[in-house]
Amino acid sequence: MRFLTGLLKGDKNSAGEATTGSGNEKIPESQDNSSSSSYSVHSEKYMAGSGHQQLQHHPHDDINDQFYEYPDPRAYNPFKDSSSSTSNPSVQSSTRGYPHNDRTTVTTNYFGSIAADNHPSSTMTTPMLGTASEFDRYPHAISTTAASDKRSSVANSASFANGSQRSGSLVLDSDSEKNPFVVDSDFSPFGGYPASSFPLHMEEKEADDYIHNPDPILDAKYDRRCVPPGQLGRRGVGAVGALGCLIVGAVLIFIVLPVLTYSGVTSQDSIHKTTPDKVEVLTNYAYGKMAGIRTDLVDPDTPEDAKVHKSKNGDQWTLVFSDEFNKEGRTFYEGDDQFWTGPDFYYAATEDLEWYSPDAATTKNGALELRLDAFKNHNLFYRSGMLQSWNKLCFTQGYIEVSALLPGSGKVPGLWPGLWTLGNLARPGYGASSFGVWPYTYDSCDAGITPNQSSPDGLSFLPGQKLNKCTCKGHDHPNEGVGRGAPEMDLLEGTVAGDAKKNGVASQSIQLAPFDIWYYPNYDFVEIHNKSVTATNTWTGGPVQQAVSIATQLNPDWYEFDTDTPSYQSFGLEYLNDQETGYARWFVGDDPTFTLYPQALGANGNVGPRLISREPMSIVLNLGISNSWTYIDWPSLRWPSTMRIDYVRVYQPENNQSVTCDPEGYPTYDYIQDHLNAYSNPNLTTWEEAGYAFPPTQLLNNCD
């Protein structure tokens, strides 16, 4: 503000009175600077010549051309006079929170406008140099002053003398209504503090200046710690080294170590152990091991009275295999069990809606449990369990009995429980292995072995019998000169009757190829034992299979959800495969349902007789769900549904026992080993996809 001092100064007369520039008005000087605390400026007088009111400069301005050194604001007491050390409210009222020299207080805008009191009767009071108050920026310090209640005006900085000269003198206008720059004294752009109290001097020090003002000395000290661009300091070198160690460690752990382990360079046996292994016992349950589960094919838990079966002819057949499933917590992953395997695959052949998983098959409470869950896995929404004895346990003719508690309700269609057998040359669920062998049971060399049975009317869609009787010598065949296949014989396929009764039904059948005309066997040699509960199945086959089948009504007590006290029921199949004296008889409980004699499958049209199976038959237990089987009543199904198996027992004649999958005259082992790709990949659906070809036949004259 010092550079505006000349504009505010006027001339003094001989009486020591300060005058305005024109001499028209006199302003009395203060008589005693040490005791006087204020003087008034009357703002109603105007200089006639210039049109601006000019305030006479105070004479004491000449004695202090340097900025005032302000005391510490924190020591300021607004109610104590600096000269008398007594409370002086008038000083607080007059200072308005701003420190001043011993002079008239005039606030001058650098752009030409100066604020002053607008009212004629008001005064702007300023303490003298010795009694000047400390600067106080807080509103409470001026909240009780009379001056704060007055209005201030701001003169237009665009006011010029004669339109060409910019005036730095004080402009006072008593007519606030006509002055557009008159504002309320409480208005402030400085965060709520009065505008007149805001410090305008750069040299004024505040307590927080060190936060936002640069300090050259301290900055230089910090700069010495900085690393010049393009160079690495100690910290940078350490960071790069640590990053390098991290990369090397990751390469060793995730690349080098797996490669060495996979290649066999390192192994657990080569690791030197300095301390013995510690084994924590989590349970006292003794889990079975392959080396010590069973040493006998007959389960030791099988009751003595169940070790003999009386055949249709009255002969006593001996128990050759049994599994009572009494061992708690058995698992059936590949290699876990010596008789059964729980597959982990999708059964594509029947378009099932579930994924078969070993997780869904276990033993509990003295029974095998196959549990069907609404559980999303492998992009399917259901999971269930299957057990199969393929290539582990097979039997050739005899009597097989399975005791089961059926899943769900006999009144709700949708589930597909199955207890069945299949020739060992086809592995259940492996489409390539069954291609050309299922469901053939044929030992002739005629049109029955050809693709589609050489019939143009769509009777058969089968590719022909791959392992037929007239295969060319020296070609791919397990035992040349014998027609081989993989027929299917079902103890039970559960469904629900389609009539209004909605009762559970057991479908029992033999499925075979080649086919009779219209899939219609000679029913004169099919005996139904109780027609009140058993009837011929109206479905007799299709382009891929022929079925001789019956349907038997089941008791609701044999279902999981139809009674509070469900009970097990046995389902059985007894058969002998002699072409003259043989038969196949199905049972529900101890009661036979129907009997099939070989003559029912005799020669018909351009095909010869089909055989009651002579193949080693593996056992399959499963619970599925499929739209290809039956209508599914989704709202009525309950989840989970579990099929429970109490036991599996196999009986055979005393003089004709075979529980191997590789019997003499009908071998399978070598053939399976020579074609493992077809028997180990469930995603392959044809023999050609597995990389093999059908052997040539003499019937078609294509032998070498």
From TrEMBL:
Residues 1-104 are annotated as: Disordered. SUPFAM superfamilies: Concanavalin A-like lectins/glucanases. Residues 30-41, 82-94 have a biased composition (Low complexity). The chain crosses the membrane at residues 237-260. Keywords: Cell wall biogenesis/degradation, Glycoprotein, Membrane, Signal-anchor, Transmembrane, Transmembrane helix. It is found in: Membrane. The keyword Transmembrane applies. GO terms for biological process: (1->6)-beta-D-glucan biosynthetic process; fungal-type cell wall organization. GO terms for molecular function: glucosidase activity. The keyword Membrane applies. It is a single-pass type II membrane protein. It comes from the Eukaryota. Belongs to the SKN1/KRE6 family. This is ARAD1A15884p.
